[in-house]
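User: Run a structure prediction on this.
Assistant: Running it now.
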Amino acid sequence: MELNDFMSALTESLKKRGIPDDVIRAHMARLLPSLSEEDLAEIAAFRSAEDFTDISDCTAAALAQTVKVEIPESGNGTTHASEKPDHSAERSKTGHSVKKEKMPEIPITEEGKKRFILISALTSPLWAIAAVLYALLWIAAFAVEALSVAAAVCASIGVFAAGCAASVSGIIYGIFIMMSEKAIGIYEIGFGIIVAGASLLGGVLLYNFAIRFMPFAIKKTAEFFMFCLGRVRVLLHEFKKRCFEV
């Protein structure tokens, strides 16, 4: 099948599935430049629109997410409504979108409510201790990371300062000693230059550790913290569900 024939057949197929014309045109404009050599070879192997029915179905389902349309089901001619997806997402402190998990509703009864309150009150010392330990764990993790940044910055400054002092002293001493012992003077000057290079390398590594690696580590720790908070929410929901089911 030629590319133009494929595009026309796909357009007609999407129209039959209820996709609006403007949505189809926009999709085709994006699709054409993105086709690879493998895609073109696969298109060339098609003989009719029935050969890529699954592609039409998947494309229609994807396009239907952007607009509320009636999509015919393949094979039986029935339709179902496809609405815009809910893109409401909370932004975490790390800048990543975190969607809330929809928890199944729990049938609430008076007996179950009393049981939930009673069990919660009896187990309050346990979960209070667990909550404190959990909070302390994360506080300690973030504190260690913050102290690591400060320590690495201070260490880089110290390495720079100590290296410069040792290097300058060695070079000056080598220059003076060359007047009496030329070989020793050259050795001292060379040693001073080596110390300067080593201190520069160590300082740069420490600085990059503080400025580049540690912010990345803190960001990932924050993401893991948000993930764990989500798991705690699931655990509390499961606890409540079990209380009402007993």
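DSSP finds seven helices and four strands in the chain.
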